[in-house]
Amino acid sequence: MSEPATPRHVAIIMDGNGRWAKNKRLPRAMGHREGGEAVRRTVKACARLGVECLTIYAFSSENWKREEEEIADLMKLMRRFIEANLGDMVEQGVRLKIIGDYSAFDPDIVEQLEDALERTKDGSRTLAVALNYGSQQEIARAAAKAARQGDVTVASIEANLDTADLPPLDLLIRTSGEVRLSNFLLWQAAYAEMIFMDVLWPDFGEEHLEAALDEFAQRERRYGGR
Ligand code: IPE
Ligand code: IPE
Ligand code: MG
Prior knowledge:
By secondary structure, the chain is of the alpha/beta class. It has a single domain (9-217), classed as Undecaprenyl pyrophosphate synthetase. The chain has helices at residues 17-23, 28-49, 68-91, 107-119, 135-148, 154-159, 206-218; strands at 9-13, 53-60, 94-99, 125-133, 171-174, 193-196. Strand 3, helix 4 (107-119) and strand 4 form a beta-alpha-beta unit. The N and C termini lie close together (10 Å). It binds 3-methylbut-3-enyl trihydrogen diphosphate (IPE) (2 copies) and magnesium ion (MG). One 3-methylbut-3-enyl trihydrogen diphosphate binds at residues 14-19, 59, 63, 74, 176.
């Protein structure tokens, strides 16, 4: 079966903000801030390159283990990021989607996110942001829900995942050179292609996305067939 050369759904583990800042002898928060700029660039690049859905790992359920100060910096940046980018998202037809349990965040952020979800709901492309997200927790929640509905199957679990309304995951990218999934999209990655890149997330640009898409286009997906 021939596959389209451009992935419909790309997910990114945006890693390396801390190392980027450390290399430049800057505070970690500066790495996260520049990471936000990389998100802006990547959303634009996806539109230009024809990627319909981008899912980004912004805060994991395990990231609460970090120091209070870093978590507070991340929350501040999240507020600012939404304020600065919501208008562009609406204008560019980007629908915001959140995966993970964002109700754990401060009430003002929850409110801001809900407003953003509402205002972008008619967008034709999707930016899915993983917030307080853990894939094992997501699968457990989905399985429990399927059980309550009386039918635990691959299809019924899948239908209850946070990503149920997104296209199947085609390509998963992780930056920073680490080669692990860190509890991200474990179920969805079953037959996704994976690309691990050495670039630190704040340095990620359109050229890196293009390189990943070029590599994706060369891959032969078999899904267990031959
Ligand atoms: C990724 O960068 C961003 C978040 C996890 C929020 P890191 O902060 O993990 O950067 P490194 O891995 O320490 O370089
Ligand atoms: C994964 O990166 C989470 C995000 C990118 C938000 P981490 O930096 O938290 O992952 P580990 O701890 O290196 O596995
Ligand atoms: Mg990291």
